[in-house]
Design a protein that fits this description.
With 99 residues, the chain is α+β, with helices and mostly antiparallel strands. The protein has a single domain, classed as Beta Barrel (OB fold (Dihydrolipoamide Acetyltransferase, E2P)), CATH 2.40.50. The chain contains one helix and five strands. A five-stranded mixed β-barrel has the order 1-2-3-5-4. The chain is elongated, with a radius of gyration of 21 Å.
Length: 99
């Protein structure tokens, strides 16, 4: 009986340790011009960030991107999995704005 409990505990520990699906994402630091996205063919993101060489679709749950329209700023963001789609830009979530 004790051996069964010990083996069950061991296997539970192994399963728990190997089934950690937590994903580590690295933040991106980007500088560019914030603009309203308007009507797009790819239909994601409320705003875009235009850098010197690339355009990114933006979203944010805690920063009002409308207040930043027309400004060149530096943001800290993370890439949203599953994008780009249909030839659209990378989709990123703005986490903070650097002063």
């Amino acid at each position: 009986m004790k051996l069964g409990v010990l083996l069950s505990s061991f296997f539970l520990l192994i399963i728990t340790a190997t089934c950690n699906n937590q994903k580590v994402t690295s933040n991106m630091k980007l500088t560019g011009l914030i603009e309203a996205a308007g009507i797009t063919s790819y239909q994601y993101g409320s705003h875009v960030l235009r850098t010197d060489d690339k355009t990114y679709a933006l979203t944010s749950g805690k920063i009002d991107l409308t207040e930043l329209e027309g400004q060149t700023i530096t943001i800290i963001a993370e890439k949203i999995d599953g994008y780009p789609v249909e030839g659209g830009p990378e989709y990123i979530k703005v986490l903070e704005v650097e002063e």
